[in-house]
Every structure is written in structure tokens, then in C-alpha cells.
Write a sequence for this structure.
């Protein structure tokens, strides 16, 4: 059995960065929503939903 450690490390790094990025994007949308803005949080939440949907698509297809 041969493990591709470089590929495993890449998957770990990308998942860590994107996971933290989605959480940051969502919390930024919540912070801006508290100030009374509507467009920026909507774009933020739609971007989060799109990233999550794309991840689910990748898992389902591959």
C-alpha cells in the first residue's frame, strides 16, 4: 500500500483554509448584518451556500 503524502497534505491544507474561509465569510456577513446593511450579508451568505453546494457536488460526483 502506497500513500501519496503530498496529495494528502494538499487536501488537508485546502480543506483547512476553505473551512476557515467559509466560517470567516459567514461571520463577516453576520457582523455587517448587525449594522443594518442588507446587500453585503446577502452576497456573503450566497457565497457560503455556493461553496458548500460545490463541496457537496464534488463529494457526490467523485
Amino acid at each position: 500500500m502506497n500513500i501519496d503524502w503530498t496529495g494528502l497534505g494538499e487536501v488537508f491544507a485546502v480543506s483547512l483554509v476553505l473551512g476557515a474561509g467559509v466560517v470567516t465569510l459567514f461571520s463577516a456577513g453576520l457582523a455587517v448584518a448587525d449594522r443594518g446593511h442588507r446587500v453585503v450579508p446577502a452576497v456573503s451568505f450566497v457565497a457560503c451556500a455556493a461553496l458548500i453546494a460545490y463541496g457537496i457536488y464534488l463529494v457526490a460526483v467523485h
